[in-house]
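The data layer described in this paper is built around a simple, fixed record for each protein. Such a record has a labelled line for the sequence and another for the backbone structure tokens. For reference, a complete record is included directly beneath this paragraph.
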Amino acid sequence: MNKAVVLAVISGSLLLSSCDQSVSVPPKTHPDVSSWNDLFAPDLSDAIYPEGIWTFEDGVLTASEDQAIWTKKDYDNFIVDLEFKTAEGTNSGVIVYCTDMENWIPNSVEVQIADDFAEQWANSPGTWQCGAIFGHLAPTKSMVKRPGEWNRMTITCRDQMIYVMLNGEMVAVMNMALWTSAETNPDGSEIPSWLSTPFAELPTHGHIGLQGKHAGAPIYFRNLKIKAID
């Protein structure tokens, strides 16, 4: 092998190494999203939602009622990065892999957003608390900030693997293939009855959504970004 070829191979290896580091999956920290796409356009022209319920104002997206907002586009492998702010008693979520927007609860995966400082959520099962895969996998620790403070969340979805990072901590890692029952989780805990599809059977693509003003308390989002991954 001549010198020029050796140098080309080395240069190519270094370039691949550099590229691999820039697209770490899942990210080891909250990523630089400056070059990512908006999850929703500022005028919500690429969203599906009940008219008049969801509004963008000064870069903040919020809902006046308990109605979800959805991407028109269907996504498979991706990373979503966003900021959210709770109010007292907030119970919301980021919904991924949704194949039926009209009946989304048993046909999707919800990453829980909640005001864990509110008594009703602090005393709920771990699988209902902020950063959980709702009803299925509790977060490893509580990382949500108090109501009124902005939080950052990065959700990575690659096939049946889902990773949730909240305020710098990886709080949930799920292999959906292990959730073969719609009644009990792999650790033996009970799954809410309304989540009637085993995760192992869910398609690993679909619309991405945000839950609205659920349980009477508002939720606020900003800087919603998405990046497709292999």
